[in-house]
Amino acid sequence: xxxxxxxxxxxxxxxxxxxxxxxxxxxxxxxxxxxxxxxxxxxxxxxxxxxxxxxxxxxxxxxxxxxxxxxxxxxxxxxxxxxxxxxxxxxxxxxxxxxxxxxxxxxxxxxxxxxxxxxxxxxxxxxxxxxxxxxxxxxxxxxxxxxxxxxxxxxxxxxxxxxxxxxxxxxxxxxxxxxxxxxxxxxxxxxxxxxxxxxxxxxxxxxxxxxxxxxxxxxxxxxxxxx
Length: 227
Ligand SMILES: Nc1ncnc2c1ncn2[C@@H]1O[C@H](COP(=O)(O)OP(=O)(O)OP(=O)(O)O)[C@@H](O)[C@H]1O
Description:
Bound molecules: adenosine-5'-triphosphate
Helix content: 25-40%
CATH architecture: 3-Layer(aba) Sandwich
Largest sheet: 6 strands, mixed
Shape: globular
Mean pLDDT: 94
Oligomer: single chain
Number of helices: 9
Structural class: alpha/beta
């Protein structure tokens, strides 16, 4: 559904990605050390960075020249690193900001509150007072209110306690079951490979390995990344 092939991109004159192609799959994990170019690749996917070379195709349409909001309108959603939310607004208000003006907005919110019981429990709590894991769930819930067919997640488990990591993994598997494609950047390799159908490893902006996900891939990937 999303095709990223032979991508070259960077910042100003600095090239970060050198001909990166991402394998297709229902859940695809992008792995690699700090600075490998993982977040940059996701920014190319959602349109925050224009690649200098390569193809960005979504559902058969070349979207390379589309702005991020146009990609969201096409069915893509992006959750950047850092569990971003409006800390002074409540959980519910954070969801309402996205749902307002959408047809069936209340039902869209209710569906996410049912998916994430912690958000339902703390619906009237200010987002700034939620735990990191709950704020990550809120960020994912906000993205899901746009009813995406492709969800792009940048390090959803960063700085999150292990119990919530497992919940987020379950959510990703569940979303795939609902027909939503997930493109995921992760440092947490075991988590990512458990959830992923395919993976790609980046090092210094180059693809060093691709393969099928699952537990068995963990040792191969660790060896490739020398960890
Ligand atoms: N806004 C920016 N301006 C200039 N250079 C940047 C910018 N963002 C990232 N870079 C550089 O691009 C390279 C790749 O960074 P990127 O964030 O894509 O890596 P990453 O694999 O996601 O790593 P991390 O896990 O640390 O986020 C790094 O050398 C980084 O310093």
